[in-house]
Amino acid sequence: MQIISIKFYLFTVLLFLTFNATSQSNDSDSFNCFSVLIGKEASIDGSVLLAHNEDDGGDRVVNWYKVPNQKHNSAIDSIQLKREHSIAQAKQTYAYLWLEIPELEFSDSYFNEQGLIIASDNCRSREDQAELTNGGIGYWLRRLMVERAKTAREAVELAGNIIETVGYASSGRTYSIADANETWMLSVVNGKHWVAQRVPDNHVAIIPNYYTITQVDLSDTANFLGSRDLITYAIERGWYNPKEGPFNFRKAYSNQKNLSHIGNKARLWVSINALSKKQYGIDDDFPFSFVPKKKIALQDVFKVLRNHYQGTENTFLDANYSGTPHMQKVMSVCSNTNQYGFVAQLRSWLPTPIGSVLWIAPRRPCSQAFIPIYSGILDVPKKLSVTNYKDALANHFTKIDDFEAYSKGHQYLYFDKSAKKVDSNYSKLIENYQKTLFEFENQLLLEQNNFEKNLQEKYHKNPKKAIKKLTKYSNKQLKKAIKNNK
After folding, report:
1. E strand or H helix at 67, and its extent?
2. Which end of the chain is more exposed for a tag (fewer CB within 10 A), N or C?
3. Backbone angles phi, psi at 301, to 5 degrees
């Protein structure tokens, strides 16, 4: 690793004075979220893994809902987008776990009964002449994917068709989409342009908050999908000159400030070097994906989501953490605005309700254990939401005037309070907190194999009873985690 130069250090300080890393509450901000996508041949057990830290500033709660299968009359029923356009409902939708952050348009995560997981990262584009039809789509894009798609590829194709029909009504974003066989990145641009790339099975791909897809070959439909005029449009706008070499989506379509911002580069740099065979300097041209130095286990990904640059030669941490590593001059992967972190473990050789599990650390990954929540669960503890899933959708964009009254009794607040307590004296408190959480987390990891083995036997004999046991187990671990934080 390179030793940081005085010039580069001064540059980071200047950027810190210019950008407040704690202000990340809406889609116009540059640094919302972080994701890691791992192919099935790159993991230690053959799982596809998708890891994500959800970043959103301000006072927040995360509502948890299990949305059941629903039937609709597609000739009558329609989805009214936040803007003007409406889309016909599907005749039947899949059931899914919904992690909702009220008021926000681009912050919810979804995990459906088919083992399809979707999260996203803000990636600002340079588009300033967006073509939209009746206002375009935003919030509903990932929800439609999880309601209607069985596989990651189906989700990408569905999203692409919607974007080309109504347009995408935000600067830009990359969706991380995975099933038990494949993982894809779908990068969308304000208007009607998009591109998706499949992560090779033996590779890892990491995304901070700029587009990471580089060279694109739309003739290779097994690995790339996208707008037909993706390259010609970039030429027309003066974003790409064929005489300068191969087309690079990242360079052509990205907001150029985001590409060079240290808040993006540093998180990508430290995470790639934690997992990659090849070690990179912070100013190197990072690849779309890479071969890991070893097969990756769940614990390896947990560690990435907990990273504050500790242990690096050119650390961005203040000498004494300034009280907490979450409020520093360069945003870290585990940051002040984390609302939760998760790693989806997707295994094709198991029945889907058992083989698809979401390991989630509510609020702050470095001070919370990752808890297993299976895709087949029937419900979640009631005190982890303020209402039912129907009312939650109807009122999602309603402004919360009194956060204290809205969130009263919400058990997510225990995790929030715990995170804030640790931050109040991080260097003194974190060791004991992590000792407790690692003991709990390691016990869950040790239990997993035997629990799932016994559950498979029951599932083959009586699926309904096995699903009830699965639900009971997941909710039991959630309740333990809540109790640990009271």
Report:
1. strand 63-67
2. C
3. -75, -35
pLDDT at residue 387, as a whole number: 96
Residue 167, burial from CB neighbour count under 10 angstroms (0-12, 13-18, 19+): buried
In single-letter form, the type of residue at position 263 comes to G
Please state whether beta strands 224-226 and 183-191 pair in parallel, antiparallel, or not at all (unpaired): unpaired
CA 187/CA 254 separation, integer angstroms:
10
417's CB contacts (< 8 A; 6+ apart) are 485
Q: How far apart are CA 407 and CA 62, in angstroms?
A: 10
Residue 176, φ and ψ in degrees, nearest 5: -100, 125
Contacting residues for 221 by C-beta, under 8 A, at least 6 apart = none
Rounded to 5 degrees, what are φ and ψ at 402? Answer: -125, 95
Mean pLDDT of 177-187: 98
- CATH number, span 6-484: 3.60.60.10
Task: State the Cα–Cα distance between residues 171 and 105, nearest whole angstrom.
Answer: 13
pLDDT in tens, 126-157: 999 999 987 899 999 999 999 999 999 999 99
Return the percentage of the chain with pLDDT > 90, whole number: 83
Amino acid symbol at 12: T
Residue with tokens 């979450």, as numbered in its chain: 326
pLDDT of residue 7: 37
Q: Where are the alpha helices (DSSP H) in 205-332?
A: 230-236, 249-253, 256-260, 262-275, 298-305
Q: In what helix (H) or strand (E) does residue 346 lie, and over which residues does it extend?
A: strand 338-346
Domain ranges of the chain: 6-484
Residue-wise pLDDT tens digits, 3-15: 333 333 333 333 3
Quick one: how far is CA 376 from the chain centroid? 20
